[in-house]
Amino acid sequence: MIRDHQKMIADKIRTESYRKAIMETVKSGDIVLDLGTGLGILAFFACQAGAQKVYAIEKSRIISVANQICWANRFQDKVTFIKDHSTKVKLPEKVDVIVTEVLGTFALDENILPSIVDARNRFLKLNGTLIPFRIELFLAAIESKAHYSVIEFWDSPLYGINFKPARAEMAKLPHAIRIKESECLSDAVSLKRFNLRTTDGISIDETISFPIKRTGILHGWGGWFEVQLSPEISISTSPAAPETHWKNIFFPSIVPMRVNAGDVINLHIRSVKRDDHTAWWWRLAYTISPYENSIIRLI
Predict the structure, then answer these.
(1) Do 179 and 279 fall into the same domain?
(2) What's the confidence (pLDDT) of residue 297?
(3) Residue 51 shares a structural domain with residue 175
(4) Predicted pLDDT of residue 298
(5) Which of 251, 241, 259, 258 is CA-nearest to residue 281?
């Protein structure tokens, strides 16, 4: 677990962006809530920005290390650690700012939506501020035999045993990868934008279209996100942006498929909230080929 937190803190794009947004947002005397505090770095940034009090919630045992770091930096009089899931916590007062970084590879993976909606509704003052306050998800059709190799691994016998049934299971899983711009068969398409100040929605169920730009082999879809932390500070994990620890997500196609420039690929994708994460389901709905004037329905 500590290795994961080391990767996050070492990610200068992530950490510096949050530090700047907190310095821009938190005012002297503010009461702050940090959801999923981890090692406490965002809570400590809030103290540096002038917060009077910070409630730092974390359900995992890493909170004990965060408390030691807090004492080592003499923030113990300002930070109150609470070991529990935020939806089960009651606070003695409303807060001016809620900050959270429970962002997964495709933003929603760690249940940021239900957590922040619940905290906003119960804890945030009427004119309070959220960090981040907006999340937008993007997808593009991609061609990448290299990324698809984890699926095709199961195509050939291994040690004299046919493992092909495992192929379908691997193709149902999203994979953390780094997408290259050259791998995109389509432009980026916005899957969903969430205004965290107002949304009550905590899931996705969408069918979206991808106009194909060039002939190639469709191996699946690559996804990334953009978060607006403050009016001046945002983070993008797009292939065009510098790499972060989040990487990108790859939703494989069940089978690779040749596509031509001008084709339109339709994808049905939905998120499913679990107790401790958000799962993803996706299927190629159908393709439309202008050259053959036909529709190929795959589900």
Answers:
(1) yes
(2) 42
(3) no
(4) 44
(5) 251
Q: How far is CA 111 from CA 32, 117, 184, 202, in A?
A: 20, 10, 28, 8
Indicate the pTM of the whole model: 0.93
Cβ-proximal residues to 121 (8 Å cutoff; 6+ apart), any chain: none
**70-107 pLDDT per residue, tens:** 999 999 999 999 999 999 999 999 999 999 999 999 99
The verdict on 159 and 228 lying in the same domain is yes
233 found inside a domain: yes
In a domain, residue 106? The reply is no
Q: How far apart are CA 278 and CA 280, in angstroms?
A: 7
Model pLDDT, residue 290: 64
Task: Name every residue whose Cβ is closer than 8 Å to that of residue 188 and which is 6 or more positions away in sequence.
Answer: 138, 139, 140, 238
Domain CATH code at residue 42: 3.40.50.150
Residues 15-74: tens digit of each pLDDT: 999 999 999 999 999 999 999 999 999 999 999 999 999 999 999 999 999 999 999 999
Q: Does residue 150 sit in the same domain as residue 243?
A: yes
Q: Into how many domains does the chain fold?
A: 2
Structural domain that includes position 10: 2-101
142 & 198 share domain: yes
DSSP per-residue letters across 202-263: ---EEEEEEEB-S-EEEEEEEEEEEEE-SSS-EEE-STTSPP-TT-EEEEEEEEEEEE-TT-
Verify that 214 and 257 share a domain, yes or no.
yes
How far, in whole angstroms, is CA 240 from its chain's centroid? 17
